[in-house]
Design brief:
- The chain has helices at residues 4-21, 37-41, 72-84, 96-100, 131-146, 152-158, 160-170, and strands at 23-28, 52-54, 63-66, 90-94, 122-124.
- The chain is of the alpha/beta class.
- The chain has a five-stranded parallel β-sheet with strand order 2-1-3-4-5, sandwiched between helices.
- Helix 2 (37-41) links the parallel strand 1 and strand 2.
- Helix 1 packs antiparallel against helix 5.
- The chain is globular, with a radius of gyration of 17 Å.
- It starts with a helix and ends in an 11-residue tail after the last helix.
- The mean pLDDT is 92.
- Bound molecules: iron/sulfur cluster.
- Iron/sulfur cluster binds next to helix 4.
Amino acid sequence: MVNDKESQKIVDIIQNFARQSSLFVLAYGTGCGAIEIPPTMTSRYDAERFGIRGAATPRQADVLLITGYLATKSLKRVIRAYEQMQNPKYIIGFGSCTINGGMYWDSYNTINRLDMYIPVDVYINGCMPRPEAVIAGFAKLQKLIQAGKADGWDRYQKNLEFYRGNQKKIIHNWVMPDYNW
Ligand code: SF4
């Protein structure tokens, strides 16, 4: 006899398998690394064979791919796009600029650590990462989803005050709806 807890566990495994097998990606091409996305998605590397394909809008996307440095102005658009996505949703930070600012670390107008503003599930390092590294990053995200450990969307809700505080510190003209999850 299977109890409620065990049947929920089975449902989670099946749902996570379905989620990791079909990732619709919204690529936010902020930095130079965006140039590696076309070869990753097209016939040379063919990411679709791993269940990874593009999405047209945030509302259809599971993954937000941030491909490099973010100016404070672009950050506002990224936050807006992320908050329009349905849960569960995931973020991949692509390139050194998303990790520590990269070569723009001391710029007056770019951010240094993406995960201070939105929750990053996987980072892909390099400047710029090649398509093999991008596919390896997606494989890592798929493993986390299957294990139920890609929980950035949940952390965002639980720590919204922390993220909002950081966001509002650098985005001065803050005109955005405040969601009430
Ligand atoms: S990590 Fe390198 S390739 Fe990527 S946005 Fe920064 S400078 Fe450009």
